[in-house]
Amino acid sequence: MEPGLYLTFFTQGEAFDRELPPVGPLEHVVVRDRILVADRKDGENEPFEVGGRWVEAERELRRATGQEPGGATRPDLRIGAPEGVYLRFVSLGEAAEHDAVPELGPYAVVVIGRNGVEADGDPLATRKGSGQRLWELTGVGGSAFVGVIRPDIAFRTRSTAYHPEIKPFRAGVVPVASKSQPAAPVASARAAEPTRSARPPEDPGLTLRDRIGSERPTYASAALEADSREWGGAAWQLRYGIIGALIVLLAVFSVPSIRSLMTGGTPVSATVGVGTSLTAPTWTYNVGNVRRVATIGTSKARGTYLVVQVAATNRGPATAQLQPSNFSLSAGSGEEYAAQPATSGVYASALNPNSSYVWPTEFPVGRTVVVPLVFEVNPSVTGTQLVIFDVPATRVRLE
């Protein structure tokens, strides 16, 4: 499968075997109100000569992009890419300060339905508005973006770019919820307050508790200074007792380390969070989305499925392969779980055609490929960590 975006037009609830095949590879994809913007990648032709349902899929794309009249006949859209799907909620063509929502991804599959947008099962936005179709963010990208409204969704992959009219993301800009919402009024009484000391303007991103906590009343400074002198004198009088207690604590905490060195104990692995890049001799890993599901297509878990999306980049030979056996899951209770093999029924196959997870078979050098790891775990496990066998000194904290 060539790199790029692949679009599947479908109607929610229809049988899998009646769905149209995916169309692609595409780039510069933007989903707008009742219209789709998309370009074919350079050198790719429309495969009308294939015939059958491929022709119908191509015509659906042409209707959706306005190249043929009538509009798309299938209202739902599934977007996938072998290198992972990245997206931004934007206002196409508007100034960059109006599109301060950051990029989300990579995801294996993004589904745009009549009521909302989901990525690997996580709700990213819900439909809003009866006239113009708008998207209201759920806050998956951060709590600061809850309720932010955008009309368009832009997509890219690792090897393709966003539409040329999409303005670059500007970090630090506060997103605008919508044009119809008035700006917060400025209290005129603040200007009449007597000036105590110069203060920087308040950060609108701070919570009320943060702002209150950062403002120390001036009338309390004298009392605080007196308390500080009183405690300082007491500490000086007790200095010998404090030094002795520190020596005892140092000895207590040093004994296990010394015993470990004497007995040849191994150091504890470092733990990093999701989104941290990890480098092995021939691979680079970056853990993305983590979720729990009870079923995957027709496959039902005896406990629950924990699905971990990992963006893997091959830095070795072109023939290198990555298998689920290169990973395992460690629970806080000490339980260890192996990943489901690539031949497992959780992945898309003739036995489970409704599964949205596919284990890749090609890992081109230098290209990022998203691999979906599936673990069948006890529903009560907590403190899960991903173990990557060729990065033995580091684990990834998942939950």
Task: Provide an overview of this structure.
By secondary structure, the chain is an alpha+beta fold. The chain has helices at 53-64, 208-214, 221-237, 239-262; strands at residues 5-10, 23-32, 35-40, 76-90, 104-112, 116-119, 122-128, 134-137, 149-150, 152-156, 270-273, 277-279, 283-296, 299-314, 327-330, 336-338, 368-377, 385-388, 394-397. The strands form three sheets. Strands 1, 2, 3, 4, 5, 6, 7, 8, 9 and 10 form a ten-stranded antiparallel sheet that branches. The two termini are 33 Å apart. Mean pLDDT is 77; it is low at 178-223.
Largest sheet: 10 strands, antiparallel
Oligomeric description of these chains: single chain
- Summarize the amount of helix as a percent range: 10-25%
Separation of the first and last Cα atoms:
33 Å
Mean pLDDT value: 77
Poorly predicted sequence stretches spanning 5 or more consecutive residues? 178-223
Q: In percent terms, what proportion of residues is strand?
A: 25-35%
How many E-type strands?
19
Cα gyration radius (Å):
27 Å
Large-scale geometry: globular
SS element count, helices: 4
Label the structural class.
alpha+beta
- What is the H/E string? EEEHEEEEEEEHHHEEEEEEEEE
